[in-house]
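User: I'm new to structure prediction. If I give you an amino acid sequence, what do you actually give back? Let's try with this one:
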Amino acid sequence: MSNRLLVVASKVGGISEIIEDGISGFTSISEDMNDLSKIIDKALSITKQEKDKIIDKAYENYKYNFSIEKMINQYLELYKN
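Assistant: Good question. You get back a string of structure tokens that encode the predicted 3D arrangement of the chain. For your 81 residues, that looks like this:
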């Protein structure tokens, strides 16, 4: 996300909270290789405009929630409390 690349990931851990399927990346069912294959095919078949829109949304999410500045501020608040 931070490198402006299209994200394809399995729904493990907090991935579903970070990536909105089809909006800011693509997610597949954990440990389901058939589903992962379908998701990769889907990601490869979208238009450049769709890809750019998803990448932009993912980057906005990264900047707002996970940028180094945001993470530092969150850790500082945690330590203060």
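You can read the tokens as a compact description of the fold. Here is one thing that stands out. The chain has one domain: 8-80.
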